[in-house]
Amino acid sequence: MRLSIFVIVFVCNLSFCQQEDAFRVIDSLKKTIFNYKEQDSSLIADAHYLIADRFRKSTPYADSAYYYYHKAEKIYINLGSDFKLARTIYGIAVILKNEKDFIGSEVACFEAISLLEPLYETRSVIETKSYIYNNLGIVFKELDEFEQSIKYNKKALELKNRLNIKSSIDVTKNNLANTYKKNKQYNLALNFYSEILSNKKLITERPSIFSLVLDNYAHTLFLSNNLKELPGLYHKALKVSDKVNKDDYNSIIINQHLAEYYYDNLRNTDSARYYAYKAKNISEKYYTDDLLKSLLLLSKIEDDHIAVQHFNEYIKLSDSLQKNERSIRNKFARIRFETGQKEKENIQLTKERMWLFIISVVIVISSFLLYLVITQRNNNIELKFVQKQQETNEEIYNLMLSQNESIEEARDLEKKRISQELHDGVLGRLFGTRLSLDSLNRNHSDQAVKSRDLYISELKTIEDEIRKVSHELNTDFVSGSGFIDIIKTLVETQTLAYGLKYNLQHDESISWDDVNNKKKIHVYRIIQETLHNIYKHANAEYVNISLKLKNDVICLSIIDDGSGYDVEKARSGIGLKNMNSRINEINGILKITSIKNQGTTVMIEVPMI
């Protein structure tokens, strides 16, 4: 079994750069753990550690890496293996740093250092310490604690120089220079970048490191306003990066720096746009903060609506990444909570949960009872309000009817007076005039007779028309026309105030005298509220109102030509709630349909009885 573990470790190290091989090795390690999980805790812990390491270095699954690191950590604690425990905690610290939990990463690093301090300084111990210090340097740089970052980067550099790990030394020097650059100590940063680049073999032996450092060097020159060698250094770095692996992750930063250079320094928007889009296209493969930077850069370079579009994408992606980071950190916390608690802590947690449950149940029950009391009180208040509103509506309607009756009475009197005037006055005078003209017919000239006949005929026509008007004025109005007059007055008044054109159609067959006052009040109020909503929300120019009778059901339709809205997504305002409440009180039906940019239709059906 030991042999199988060592073989897997060997293959795992060989397949570091191949994600497919990494998954194959991980599966093999999981099978080994399953087959021998009861025999050797140390080997099981090592297998967990190796799985975590492969996940961290070869895949994007940070939560899986964290899970297996934590399982290894738990076993190493029980075994008292401080070095392996420190190495495992360092792996956790790197994951936390990558997921931007810098405080958590800092705490984990110091925990790992405290485990290594008492140990004899073997090469493995020193190397692990250097990696931890290197991680601390990056963490403090991100926290803008530059003095601490410089301190730990130098500590890492000192230990790596002792071990003479050349490739790792260059990485730490680059990190240290990055700290100086972020702290605006450009000369110190340039010195370290130059020291790395002075190695002539770097471009052939480690071209990816060479392009990364050269880009950092060029960007530091740009920030210090030393533009003599630019943009040549950027292009050289990009060329080397593309040669190693076209559209490599490092090329994202170089393209971003080129875009910044052409835009901020030369105002060459075409070149800036070219490199900014190139950075964006590459960074979309990784979906990280570099895509955020690319979108923000494009929002500065592009014009008008395109810039706004990129900025909106930036905000959306930023929110998404933040949520993802929070989600991953929550997973880490959950993994640590679920796997790292001792038995005693679990018992205590169970007790706490029990008490929390009891308290929660009490709170929920109390809240529910309080809710019932408050709801009942509010219902009573609402009921009183509705009753008061109904009384007020009845008073208003009765007052309107009273006023309308007075108006109708005055109108009838005035019609009779006009009728009498027309009949007794105007018609009498016209009749006398006609007789006079008739007597003049004694003049027997053909022309005179012809003219007088025309005048007499015209006067007869006038008599007939006046008599017809007189009879019409003296005719009673159709029963129930009083409520329609009220509706007409309402519509005319509101449409005039709201600047709307209208068409009002009503079915003469509706006997409003048979409809109770409550229904008429609610119909009146619904029309009033709908017209108000059209004015307030619809931006309409024309409204069509129709009152029809179908199978003893009054059908009211109000159609506007406004902007319309999505009925499913729209929130119900107070007006719409009141309309629904009124309809329910009179056992009616309310239907609202709307199409965007085509208008809204309100359909109401109210039974006559």
Q: What can you see in these coordinates?
A:
It is a single chain. The protein has a five-stranded mixed β-sheet, covered by helices on one side. Helix 21 links the parallel strand 1 and strand 2. The chain has 22 helices and five strands. It starts with a helix and ends with a strand. With 609 residues, it is of the alpha+beta class. It is 75% helix and 6% strand. Among the domains are: 104 residues, Serine Threonine Protein Phosphatase 5, Tetratricopeptide repeat (Alpha Horseshoe); 129 residues; 127 residues, Heat Shock Protein 90 (2-Layer Sandwich).
Sum this structure up briefly.
With 609 residues, this protein is of the alpha+beta class. It has helices at residues 2-14, 19-36, 41-58, 62-79, 82-98, 102-116, 123-142, 146-163, 166-182, 186-197, 202-205, 207-223, 232-244, 249-265, 269-283, 289-301, 304-339, 343-439, 446-473, 481-498, 517-538, 574-585; strands spanning 501-506, 542-550, 553-560, 589-595, 599-607.
Write the layout of secondary structure elements.
Elements: H1 2-14, H2 19-36, H3 41-58, H4 62-79, H5 82-98, H6 102-116, H7 123-142, H8 146-163, H9 166-182, H10 186-197, H11 202-205, H12 207-223, H13 232-244, H14 249-265, H15 269-283, H16 289-301, H17 304-339, H18 343-439, H19 446-473, H20 481-498, E1 501-506, H21 517-538, E2 542-550, E3 553-560, H22 574-585, E4 589-595, E5 599-607
Parallel strand pairs: 1-2
Antiparallel strand pairs: 2-3, 3-5, 4-5
Helix pairs in contact: 1-2, 1-3, 2-3, 3-4, 4-5, 4-17, 5-6, 5-7, 6-7, 7-8, 7-9, 8-9, 9-10, 9-12, 10-12, 12-13, 12-14, 13-14, 14-15, 14-16, 15-16, 16-17, 18-19, 18-20, 20-21, 21-22
